[in-house]
Amino acid sequence: MAKAKRAPSEILPIGATHFPAKGNADPQPLPAGITIRSKRSVQIEFMWQGRRSTESLPGAPDVEAVARAVTKRQSVVDEIALGVFDYARHFPNSRKVRRAEERQARAEAATSCTMGELLEEWLQRYALDNPHNRNTLDTHKEVVASRLAPSLGFLAPKDITVDKYVQYRASLRAEGLSDSRISNILTPLRGALSMAVERGLIASSPAHSSAPTKQRRSKKVELNDRGEPSFSEPLPTTLDPAYQHAAKSADPLNDSERASVLAKLVGQVRNLFLFAFWSGLRTGELIALRWCDVSADRKRILVRLSYSKRHFTTTKGRRARWVDLTPPAVAALNAQWALTGDAGRWVFNNPRTRQRWQNSQRLRVHWIRALEAAGVRYRKPYQTRHTYASLMVSAGESPEWVAEQMGHLDGRLVAHVYGRWMAPGKAVPGQAAAAVYQQEWAAAEGLVARVDEVELAEVGEREVEAGGPEEDDEEDF
To answer: SUPFAM superfamilies recorded for this chain (predicted)?
Structure first.
């Protein structure tokens, strides 16, 4: 026999506050803490841990369901008063129970997971996402191994507070590190903290909350008689702050220093540094220069590769560029063609091994010995690039043309970094230097090395090979 359906009048409507009236009796209000919110459940309300909590009991909201809800609520209230209430036992399917379990799991994970583990996982993720940035990956690995892991690796993510992050950043600045070096150190740390946020180990990254902010303040501006604003101080420039570091790093060699250093070099090494002085290539770009990137008349080269830390990479900014060569650079190339043009694809080879230079460290040894022999103050080999730029702008070449030759986006950096050497006036791009350095360029033919010579003694070469890790001679511009 089929079960009889409930009469519609027995089901309480949503939002009902009273039971249905029976006969002539007045309708009775629903018990305290009972609410009809759905056609399929009855909601009870109680105070738990100082906060209002609600739970729905399944079942059509009729008189019997309300009676069961009253009994359930009273049991919950009594257990809360006695301090023995177990939320999961009474409401195992409640969202509050699931959230509490998730919070507990995150708390346990935050205690067991260390920053060292997160840093290693971040390195693995970076390697997968950036398979071609080997040099940057090596830098991140070095930073994690030498700095972050020893000082912060044993801590849990929750222990890295905003104050601790700010203190660590301040300690790096107190060491006198440059802004770029500090940024390199903090990048893996910020990445690991972001991973901790993704996994719910911490609510937010202290790195995002500790960024120093600068408040912009408006300044009073006076108007002249014509209603035009007059400023008491120059307007701020829009140059990148990194340009300030670049300007301080530029320390080019003067004419006598340049001549003295080249006179102490021999063979292919002299040709390489003569070419570097008059082409503006970075050290890694010199090592990676191939004959297939040299024009047929050897007056232009296509710079599209660099070599650093035993890896070939694209040039900085990933922009290939054509460089118009000056006569000394052309003379160096012509001399190199007789030495390496038939030997292989690399323009400059190590004179001892007859193979491509394996790193910039060996070039640095030749450079340092030449500086010492010439009595010239020490600079990095990268200063040959600064020397080229200062020579060009002092001759009157436009910053835009020099920037194009050096691989920069525009002439702003050139004007800012090399402005103290800049000559007034305008000239045809690439022609101003010819008038200024005509005599020196004419003498370049007699300066190049047409015979391959080896400067280092055998014991000296072994010392270089047994030396420490290769230093990165490249700069950020």
So the answer is: DNA breaking-rejoining enzymes
